[in-house]
Amino acid sequence: MTTRRIDQIWLFGGLTLAILLVIGSYFLVIGPKYTARDTVQNDTADTVLQLAKEQKKLTELREQLKSIETYKATLVTAQKALPYGKTTNQIPEFLKQLQALGIKNNVDVSGYGASAPQELKNTPAVSELPITLNIEGSIDKITTFVKELQTEQPRSVLIQSAKYGVNEDKWTLTLSLTAFITTTQTKTITS
């Protein structure tokens, strides 16, 4: 009877050891593999989602690229309105534009005076340039000149004050203008 009992103890001991080996191997070997698989599947799902977002952005950028010429034209217009000026502040070019505008409207544009640029407090990348300008001609032509100065010429200009006078048939208008420049240089685009 003792031999049978020893065989039963060995049998139950062997079964217990086998069960412990199966459970231990599951927690030590198989369980971490499932966890690693789940992590990889989650990462793959996140990557697929990110890829879909990036493909959508790429599609939007391709659509915007079709309008690149419009964007370039807008940039050229903005650069003309608010030019970059570090040394000359673009004053000579602007005065030439004013003279050409005066010739176009048959008025005499003279008496230029420009002050040092002053940085704007609310917009640190933009400086204002006070300019004084004298215009002589008939009242209709001066009015046309001022309208074109404010609406058609490309440079961003603000009229601060205006004084007029008349001498015989010639009207004289003295304008105090503020032209603007930027201290941020952008790539120059030619259209």
UniProtKB/TrEMBL annotation:
Taxonomic placement: Bacteria, Bacillati, Actinomycetota, Actinomycetes, Micromonosporales
Keyword Transmembrane helix: yes
Keywords recorded for this protein, A-Z: Membrane, Transmembrane, Transmembrane helix
Transmembrane segments: 9-29
Keyword hit for Metal-binding: no
Protein name: Pilus assembly protein, PilO
GO terms under biological process: type IV pilus assembly; type IV pilus-dependent motility
